[in-house]
């Protein structure tokens, strides 16, 4: 992770911190998500990885399990924080002082949904903007559901998720 240069605290004549929210269900976090966070750290001083509620999904992992798996991906980092909201993403962004929402795009098929989400968020709160980052080519085929399905059928998921996530999936499906 490119985490070597933590931002200095904002003083009177310094730029304010650029804080971004990276929301998602993270059921579980994958190497594709981590790729987006690492790219985001090149653009923002701090990223708040935010577990949010998608009412159409019933997560396999509890909220605490998902938060813990995310935290363990970034030990000791003062540039990656982990949060949770069951409300509007834009409200949480304002509450946390974040000016930007990060979303990852994997393929054209993601665009329609992401476009609607970004426009709705902009309609709800104009001061918060959405930035799309391309997922690295290696991770373009990954989704949390795909990984859960593979793990459920005892498929090999090594290298697609961090080791502690792989172990957590194996435990769920033993
Ligand atoms: N690498 C791997 N997978 C990726 C990925 C990447 N870079 N980018 C996206 N994905 C996958 C996720 O794993 C997930 O897979 P799954 O569907 O198999 O679980 C899927 O793409 C997208 O899921 P996610 O990023 O978790 O978003 P979501 O659609 O589940 O939820 C919320 C998006 C939570 C941010 C959205 O529902 C939300 O904003 N909710 C809060 C309520 C709110 O503010 N509503 C108003 C907005 S209109």
Which H/E pattern describes the elements?
EHEHEHEHEHH
CATH homologous superfamily heading: HUPs
Low-confidence stretches: 1-6
Instruction: Identify the bound ligands.
Output: coenzyme A
How many structural units, i.e. domains?
Answer: 1
Largest sheet: 5 strands, parallel
Kindly report how far apart the N and C termini lie.
32 Å
Q: Which class of secondary structure composition applies to the elements? A: alpha/beta
Fraction of helical residues:
25-40%
CATH fold-level topology? Rossmann fold
Give the averaged pLDDT, no decimals.
92
- Backbone shape: globular
Proportion of beta-strand residues: 15-25%
Number of extended strands: 5
> How many H/I helices?
6
Please name the defining characteristics of this protein:
36% helix; 174 residues; disordered N terminus; 6 helices; Rossmann fold
Fold blueprint:
Layout: E1 19-24, H1 31-40, E2 46-52, H2 63-71, E3 80-85, H3 89-96, E4 100-105, H4 108-124, E5 129-134, H5 144-152, H6 163-172
Parallel strand pairs: 1-2, 1-4, 2-3, 4-5
The site of coenzyme A has 25 residues, from strand 1, helix 1, helix 4 and helix 5.
If you had to describe this structure to a student in words, what would you say it looks like?
This protein is α/β, with parallel strands linked by helices and 174 residues long. The protein has one domain: HUPs (Rossmann fold). It is built from six helices and five strands; from the N terminus they run E-H-E-H-E-H-E-H-E-H-H. Strands 3-2-1-4-5 form a five-stranded parallel beta sheet, sandwiched between helices. Helix 2 links the parallel strand 2 and strand 3. The longest helix has 17 residues. The chain is globular and about 55 Å long. The chain starts with 18 loop residues before the first strand and ends with a helix. The structure holds coenzyme A. The site of coenzyme A has 25 residues, from strand 1, helix 1, helix 4 and helix 5. Coenzyme A binds next to strand 1, helix 1, helix 4 and helix 5.
